[in-house]
Structures are given as structure tokens and as C-alpha cells.
From TrEMBL:
This is histidine kinase. Its main location: membrane. Its EC number is 2.7.13.3. InterPro entries: BphY/WalK/GraS-like, HAMP_dom, HATPase_C_sf, HATPase_dom, His_kinase_dom, HisK_dim/P_dom, HisK_dim/P_sf, Sig_transdc_His_kin-like_C. It is a multi-pass membrane protein. It comes from Alkalicoccus saliphilus. Gene3D superfamilies: 1.10.287.130, 6.10.340.10, Histidine kinase-like ATPase, C-terminal domain. SUPFAM superfamilies: ATPase domain of HSP90 chaperone/DNA topoisomerase II/histidine kinase, Homodimeric domain of signal transducing histidine kinase. GO terms for molecular function: ATP binding; phosphoprotein phosphatase activity; phosphorelay sensor kinase activity. It is found in: Cell membrane. GO terms for cellular component: plasma membrane. CDD domains: HATPase, HisKA.
Length: 362
């Protein structure tokens, strides 16, 4: 399809430019011929024969040279246009592949910088679409698993009670309540994720200049009792630093990181929250011991429903949405960055918030 369209464009461009060249050369040749003949007519008497020979030779030259130049120009233009349109044709085929859901990167050749940039943008788009498709497929699989497990448990208990295999007792009712609570928590997390997504742009008006050190200490204090109850060493130290942020969003991101550290705590080290003001903004670090992470875990752990805990233990599994909410709040709503670095079983989550001191800079 694209080959036919591309060839048609090449022929049209070549025909138009050939016609323009032919007209211009014909006009210029005519004036050259007329001017030359006028000059010959001014020759002294007795040179008429030489003038006639000159006219004939000039006419022959013009009749042969001009068409030859036009033909050569047409051929040159055709092959030059073909060289330009070939990568465009390849991009067209590539976009057709994207539309069909195939994300393999084809080989493209571009002789011009502008076309090379366009090809690079298309390849970046292809990579993003491929990653989005992988994330969507993983999210659907994980969501189905998360919902199926508690629903299957509740259904199994109820069927057993209906068939008289087991009788109702406080322990059974408590198990049913826990499973239903898991479903409710999961739905609430999904709603929360949706709410943060919807408020990405509207939160701009709610931002204010705050001492982020104080916000960190306030939020960290909410988890102090929880960690101390399980005899987990817990420290927080945040330096003062004025940053233009949305307070509730930052608090939510910190609480999600603290909850993640608590749920996945493994070992004997301390959980440490610290904040530091920098020249370009403010950096928050939360370090804690936990299960070792693979490269795949670090790549996907901020995506929705991804959980590094392959066994999906009920205590540590969570809903797989907490870190995705952190990423949404920090990156989309504050133009910041969030990542994790690991050394063995020690993990450090890092948040950087740029110093955006006005709404216009946001």
C-alpha cells in the first residue's frame, strides 16, 4: 500500500519539477536564440552566410542540449526523491505494524537529519506502546489473581457451610471477614489510584510553599508506634527546606513508602527516613531491610499491581498499588523522580522534588 503511494508521489514530484525546468529552460533558450540572432544580424555585409550557419548550429544545439538537460534533471530528481521517500515509506509500514499491535523495531535508513529524528520519535513511541501493553497485560493478570484468591476462599467457606461440612464459629467468621476486608481494601486502593490520576492537573491550585522537613517529621511520627510495637528500630531526621508542594500528596507518598517498608521488613536493621535540602530541590530517602530485589523487580515495582513477593503472602503482598500511587504523585503531580537502589537486602527509596517556587514554573 505504502509502496504504491510513495511511487505515485515520486512520479508526481518528478513530473512537476521536470515541467518547471522545461518551461524555464525553454524560455531562457528562446531569449538566448533571439539575442544571438539579433547580434548576428548586426554583422558587416558579406557575412550573411556565416550568420546563417551560426543560426542553424545554435538551433541544433538548443534542440538537443535543452531536452538532454531536462532529461538528466528529471532522472536526478527521481532518484533523489526516491532516496528521500524510502525512509518515509519504511515509517509508514512501521506505523501499520504498530496499528496492528506488532512492536518489533524494523530496520530503517535515513540520509537526512529531519527524517532520522522522525524515525527516532516513532521508535520511542513504539517502545512506550510496547511497555504500556506489557504493563496492561500484567495488570489484568495480577488483578484477576488478586480478586480470584479472596473470592475463591469466601466461596469455598460458604459452600462448605451450605453443605454442612463445617459449622459457623467465631474463627470461621473471622476468616470470612478478613477475606472480605482484603477485597474492600483492594477496591479502595484502586479508587485511590483513580482519584490521584484524576487530580493530576487540578492539584496545582492546592500547592503551597511548605517546610518539607516538618511535613516529613509529622508523617514519619504517625508510623513510630507501629514500628516500635513490632520492636523495629525506627529513626527520622529531616532538615528544613522550603518547597512548593501539595501537602496531602506528599504525605500520601511517604505513608505508602513507610507502609511498604513495614510490610516487607525482613532482617534486623533499622528503618530510617531522612530529608535533605539541595541546590535544586529537596531529597527524601527511606532505607530499610527487606527481601532481595531482582533487576526485574526494580524495573516494574512502581507499576500497578506489581509485587516482588512471588508467593503473594497475605501479610507482605499488599494490593500492588501503593508504590504506583507514589510514582503518580511524585512524577506527574510534582515533576519529581522516585527510584530505588539496593545493596543486598538493604533498599533505599529516593524521592527528589525540584524547587518549583511558582505555578508558572510548574
Amino acid at each position: 500500500m505504502y509502496r504504491k503511494k510513495s511511487s505515485s508521489m515520486i512520479f508526481q514530484l518528478t513530473a512537476v519539477h521536470t515541467l518547471i525546468i522545461a518551461v524555464l529552460l525553454s524560455i531562457s533558450s528562446y531569449f538566448i536564440y533571439v539575442t544571438a540572432c539579433s547580434l548576428v544580424d548586426q554583422l558587416p555585409a558579406g557575412e550573411e552566410q556565416s550568420g546563417a550557419v551560426f543560426r542553424e548550429q545554435l538551433a541544433v544545439v538548443l534542440w538537443f542540449v535543452v531536452p538532454a538537460v531536462i532529461a538528466a534533471g528529471a532522472c536526478f530528481h527521481y532518484f533523489f526523491s526516491k532516496k528521500i521517500t524510502r525512509p518515509l515509506q519504511q515509517l509508514g509500514v512501521s506505523l501499520d505494524e504498530l496499528k496492528a499491535g506488532r512492536y518489533e523495531q524494523p530496520e530503517t535508513t535515513a540520509a537526512f537529519r529531519e527524517i532520522e529524528q522522525l524515525s527516532s520519535h516513532v521508535n520511542e513511541l513504539r517502545e512506550r506502546l510496547r511497555e504500556n501493553e506489557e504493563t496492561r497485560a500484567r495488570m489484568m493478570t495480577d488483578m484477576a489473581h488478586e480478586l480470584r484468591t479472596p473470592l475463591s476462599n469466601v466461596s469455598g467457606y460458604l459452600e462448605a457451610m451450605r453443605d454442612g461440612v463445617i459449622e459457623g464459629e467465631p474463627g470461621l467468621y473471622n476468616s470470612l471477614h478478613q477475606e472480605s476486608r482484603r477485597l474492600i481494601d483492594m477496591v479502595e486502593q484502586i479508587q485511590e489510584m483513580s482519584r490521584w490520576n484524576e487530580q493530576t492537573s487540578s492539584l496545582l491550585v492546592e500547592k503551597e510553599q511548605l517546610d518539607l522537613g516538618r511535613v516529613i517529621e509529622e508523617t514519619a511520627g504517625l508510623y513510630r508506634l507501629k514500628f516500635e510495637k513490632d520492636e523495629i528500630a525506627y529513626y527520622s531526621s529531616a532538615a528544613p527546606g522550603e518547597v512548593f508542594v501539595h501537602k496531602k500528596g506528599i504525605q500520601q507518598a511517604l505513608m505508602n513508602l513507610l507502609e511498604n517498608a513495614y510490610q516487607h521488613y525482613e532482617g534486623t536493621g533499622a528503618v530510617h527516613v531522612e530529608g535533605e535540602s539541595t541546590v535544586k530541590g529537596y531529597e527524601i530517602k527511606l532505607s530499610s531491610p527487606g527481601p532481595e530485589l531482582t533487576e526485574e523487580d526494580r524495573k516494574w515495582m512502581f507499576e500497578r499491581f506489581y509485587r516482588a513477593d512471588a508467593s503473594r503472602n497475605r501479610k507482605t503482598g499488599g494490593s500492588g498499588l501503593g508504590l504506583a500511587i507514589v510514582k503518580n504523585i511524585i512524577e506527574k503531580q510534582h515533576s519529581g523522580t522516585v527510584d530505588v537502589i539496593s545493596e543486598g537486602n538493604r533498599h533505599v527509596f529516593r524521592i527528589f522534588l525540584p524547587d518549583l517556587t511558582s505555578r508558572h514554573e510548574y
